Amino acid sequence: MRPDTTPNLPAALPFWLSLGLVPLAALATVNGGWWWLTLPGYAWYLTTGLDAVLGNEDRNPDTEAPASALFWHRAVTLIWPPLQLAVIFGAIWYVTRVADHSGWTMAGLFFGIGVLSGTIGMVYAHELLHQKDATERWLADLLLASVLYSHFRTEHLLVHHSWVSTPRDAVSARYNEGFHRFFWRVLRDGPTSAFRAERNLLARAGRPTTDRRNPFWRYAALQTAMLVLALMLGGWLGLVLFLWQAAVAIWQLELTNYVEHYGLSRKYLGQGRYEHIRPRHSWNAAHKATNWLLINLQRHSDHHYKPDRRYPLLQTYSEDEAPQLPLGYPAMTFLAMIPPLWRRRMNPRVRAWRRQFYPEITDWGPYNRGDLPMPRNAL
């Protein structure tokens, strides 16, 4: 039987849940006051509540579905970048030239916009940067530049997917490592790691770091353009507000990175070699509503197995194959901000994971400390 190639709008519509944040951002920008709370309320608490009501989605889609059948699934990722840019820069123009909001109101508003650009924009950028289509990759670059985190594309593609759950990957959180310590480590190591990866890739081709093929030239140009636009639209206040939403968005992204691989280590095989990445090296969540909002990012094991697989086709795994989170990402990132609560909930799960998959390893100290050797041939 030939697969159905008809675009499936009803199946795609739940994944358009993110668009609800756009009118909320407009209302918060115009009305001021406490309206900004509707943005984190929608992204974090409403979807977590819906998870409790709707439960999990354990069915797997047909991975052979053609691209034509995914038209409406792709559409939301393609329209989001201009919407996000309109929200950020429209709000900067409005609050600095039209509205009479207080400083605290503006700080709250751009916190909410940072939730929008971090919770949704970063996830959509992640989906787009994995695709082969040049337009989609450019849209990913625009989204990342709008939060001043362009190096994430290089770090994610060249480092994270190759060396996840090894010491080479900065965003693989270690066992017992609190989020706040992890966050500063990633901010310190991520940009230099990405630059080193691009430099080494160019060197293998016999090209200097200054070669025009180095994407850091594009990253710098796009980020500079975003900063200049914020300054032109809103002056120095507009620039400060832009930087604030970017900081919130980066915090949101790295909270998610922290959750995705916390305490999960690939087995060291000696002589700089590690086992291949397997489904067991990512935390998964099958919660329905948060997977709609985050376009199946929580089916993370399958994403690492097949990085260019589009989000509607990602597969879920049973607990026999991959570890499962007790709650969706929004609730888990809340716990991550309070390390004692996080450890109480997650450390027993990591220890159970170790007993289940690696009973032969008796000393986890080097894994916990990140003391194992770097993978050989790592960029």
Describe the structure concisely for a colleague.
By secondary structure, the protein is mostly helical.
User: What is the domain tally?
Assistant: 1
**Number of contiguous helices:** 14
Q: Portion of residues in helices?
A: 55-70%
Overall residue-averaged pLDDT value: 96
Main location: membrane
Family: Belongs to the fatty acid desaturase type 1 family. AlkB subfamily.
Protein name: Alkane 1-monooxygenase
Membrane topology: Multi-pass membrane protein
Describe it:
- This protein is mainly alpha-helical.
- It has one domain.
- 60% of the residues lie in helices and 1% in strands.
- α3 packs across α5.
- GO terms for molecular function: metal ion binding; monooxygenase activity.
Topology:
Layout lengths: L8 H4 L8 H11 L6 H17 L16 H27 L5 H27 L4 H12 L5 H13 L15 H26 L11 H46 L6 E3 L2 E2 L13 H6 L6 H6 L23 H8 L2 H19 L7 H5 L10
Antiparallel strand pairs: 1-2
Helix pairs in contact: 2-3, 2-4, 2-5, 3-5, 4-5, 4-6, 4-9, 5-6, 5-9, 7-8, 8-9, 9-12
